[in-house]
Amino acid sequence: MGIKELISLLGNEIDDPDEETFLLFSQAIPSQDLGFVDPKAKTLDLIIGSRDFVIHQSPTLLTSHRGEGTTGAVLWKITPMVARWLDSSGNILFLHSVLTSKSLILELGCGISGLLGLVLFPKIGRFIATDQSYIGKILQRNLEENAVATNSTKPRKSKHELSAKGSIDFLPLDWELNSISSLVNILDEDTIRTFDAVLACDCIYNESLINPFVQTCAELCRLRTSKKGCPTVCLVAQQLRSPEIFEQWLSTFHRSFRVWRFSDELLPNDLRSKSGFVLHLGVPRNLFH
Fold this sequence. Notes:
The protein is an alpha/beta fold. Helices cover 29% and strands 20% of the residues.
């Protein structure tokens, strides 16, 4: 069981980004707003599986004029959808041992909610949430109030390990400004070479983000240099908005990764492409043949 078995279920590899863009955007995609759950609410009540979550967010920060961006200040619609899918029994990534109880997962652009980490930490070994530092205070509150032992900025081995569970760390990372060396300087060498997956939800919404985002994904996935065993996979979920932005992202991503799309048959209704959302899996080209 592993990545080869998973890929056999995903079907044809994407060879032509232009064709993939045409196939997705030629569908009747429902009209949607920018993709926030509720940008005016200060708290959100969510149910994921058997767990209740209260997520704090900052409408004021979202509408501020902070030059480095504010989109992480509130929760985006796709994140609870992906969280529910990852939490579901028989999730295909866990079923085929791409993710296991020992997995180390890193999320790019986690935002204030930390929701993927909150859902996944009981199932895996360790979850590292990353984003710009401005979301750190609200993220920490959400992690703590949803009963998670966490580290912030400087993780130390075992200090916050939970019995029979994993742990969550938050590390600042702005992939427009910083290289992954900022992570390498904090994490020990054994840790950085054991990422099993890199996750990203709705991180691409303008063209200026594409190159630094893809470069960061590629650098993180290539830290696992051995061609033996399962390579680090990159899971990118996004709302279908602009065909031009999507095609530019996929063309750039495709140069560094072999890419597959999760077919609608493998996803819940709200994550299927006809609902306006899509999920792609990337595997580094130099480490998987």
